[in-house]
Amino acid sequence: MIRKISDRAKPGSISLGLGEPDLPTPEVIVREAVRVIQEEKNGYTLQAGLPALRERIIGDYPHMNLNPEQVIVTAGSQESLYLILRTLVEEGDEVLMPDPGFIAYPMITRMVGGREVRYRLPARKDFSFDIDDFKSKISKRTKVVICISPSNPTGRALSREELQAMAEAVTASGSNTFIVSDEIYRELYYTPERPASISEFYPRTVIVSGLSKSMRMTGWRIGWLAGDEAVIKAALVLHGYVVTCASSISQKAALAAWTHEAAAAREEYRAIFHRRRDHLLGLLRDQLGLRCVTPEGAFYTMVDVSQYGDEMKVAEAGLEQGVVTIPAAAFGDESRGYLRISFCADEERLSEGVRRLGAALKTIEAH
Q: Distance between CA atoms of 340 and 325, rounded to whole angstroms?
């Protein structure tokens, strides 16, 4: 649905749709990539990735006491998701995932023969975590629980208390399940502290993450999988047959993502998106009178357009006015009546995009 909407955009449209940072990759990484291309031989790396890169990844999770055999560098976090679900899920196994949640979760689950079960993030509570609903959905048949914080599509981040409650509920269920923690947006947050990881509360956690969002490296395809050694070794066999190894040039350039210069770029990036978030929310609320969720992370807000009818109709009207938005029902039943709006655009384009959305809403009112 997301691609279908985006592909139908008219020339000159403003996209408030796809989730891809519009800012350039930090210069320190670009410089290193150029140097690597010009000065080094760039053949295959080890299947699991450069040892130096795996060591840097390990350093991000000191509480997990990882060793290099517990990390795979992947072709983006999406490959990591595929690898871990293919490795852990057998025919008929239940995978408990958020509603709303990233569209790849149910699709990959079906691809590997699993059965999706959804725990609700209630729209009426601004898509916050509902521990009672979560407890009602987990069972001894649950093989994997997917946790994403901050979330695509809602931008909400789970608090330490919510993560601990989730971990305790999984433990109490007796399912011996693995939690797959999707942390691709963890470095993009608007709270005083970086959001916690459920791996701090639950030992059987497998981390899925990468540099696509935090370092604006979507096309470089650098992600990782980290966790239980036996599971990671099994996933490594599959990874070797799927891609052999992640791009050697991207891996070598990615080493610069742990430098002081890259850290400064990340701080600047967060500040820019924080300003954009506040600018967009102000426009949507003050100019259009729409209810929208205040995200703690990522670069999305969920906007309630249910008073105008079906969210697809609103998105279609937006296309006619030259603005791309995403009908949030694509992410689950809980988000029907909402649009997911991205702030991967500067303030001027956000202002014009909201103006066009307002014009679209007026055409619906006129009917």
A: 6
* Residue entry with tokens 């048949």: 141
Write the secondary structure of the chain as one string of H (helix), E (strand) and C (coil): CHHHHHHCCCCCCEECCCCCCCCCCCHHHHHHHHHHHHHCCCCCCCCCCCHHHHHHHHHCCHHHCCCHHHEEEECCHHHHHHHHHHHHCCCCCEEEEEECCCCHHHHHHHHCCCEEEEEECCHHHCCCCCHHHHHHHCCCCEEEEEEECCCCCCCCCCCHHHHHHHHHHHHHHCCCCEEEEECCCCCCECCCCCCCCHHHCCCCEEEEEECCCCCCCHHHCCEEEECCHHHHHHHHHHHHHHCCCCCHHHHHHHHHHHCHHHHHHHHHHHHHHHHHHHHHHHHHHHCCCCEECCCCECCEEEEECHHHCCHHHHHHHHHHCCEECEEHHHHCHHHCCEEEEECCCCHHHHHHHHHHHHHHHHHHHHC
Among 45, 15, 1, 8, residue whose Cα is nearest residue 247: 45
Closest CA to 198 of 155, 139, 158: 158
pLDDT score for 1: 67
d(CA 316, CA 34): 43
Phi and psi at 209, nearest 5°, equal -160, -170
Amino acid making up residue 7 = D
What digits encode the pLDDT tens for the residues 103-150?
999 999 999 999 999 999 999 999 999 999 999 999 989 999 999 999
In 3D space, the residue among 107, 111, 120, 113 whose CA is nearest the CA of residue 94 turns out to be 113
CB burial of 145-183 (b: ≥16 within 10 Å; e: otherwise) equals bbbbbbbbbbbbbbbeebbbbbbebbeebebebbbbbbb
Whole-prediction pTM: 0.96
Q: What is the pLDDT of residues 171-197, one digit of tens each?
A: 999 888 999 999 999 999 999 999 999
